[in-house]
Amino acid sequence: MKNPAIAKRMGKSRSDRLKNDPELRKKISEATAIAWKEGKFDSVAVGRCKWFEHTRKDGYVCKVQGTWELAYAKWLDSQGISYDSHRGVISYTDGKGNKRSYLPDFYLPDTDEFIEIKNQYHYELQKEKWKYIRDCNPELKIRILFKDDLIKMGIEI
Predict the structure, then answer these.
(1) Contact (Cβ atoms closer than 8 angstroms) between residue 108 and residue 83
(2) What pTM was estimated for this model as a whole?
(3) What 3-state class would DSSP assign to 99?
(4) Are 127 and 154 contacting, i.e. CB atoms less than 8 angstroms apart?
């Protein structure tokens, strides 16, 4: 909305409705989770990282977020490693009992593992989240790669 006063009033109205109607909040939450899972938000810009389209060796065009993910995708191609990017959802419950969803950066089907590309700063901010993800999904292999890991692998970032 262009008028800030109206936007603020509407925002408060929506906020009050959601606060007072747990069923509506649950309905919106479930619909949003389904939309993410179905890829309806694939082109939506979130955060500050730029999204890139990358064509894998098999011709499939995938989306990656940021230059580190793009470099990693290119490296996977050069190594002949099959992967999927930004597909799938891992559910977990946070410390307050809220159901949450984690959308992994990469999935490597040959080794059945998820890869997350992170900088150290944001990882430190989300450390608790990663504990919950791992606690709720102990059977999953989730590996977090930082800048130093990528450099050690010979990936130019």
Answers:
(1) yes
(2) 0.74
(3) strand
(4) no
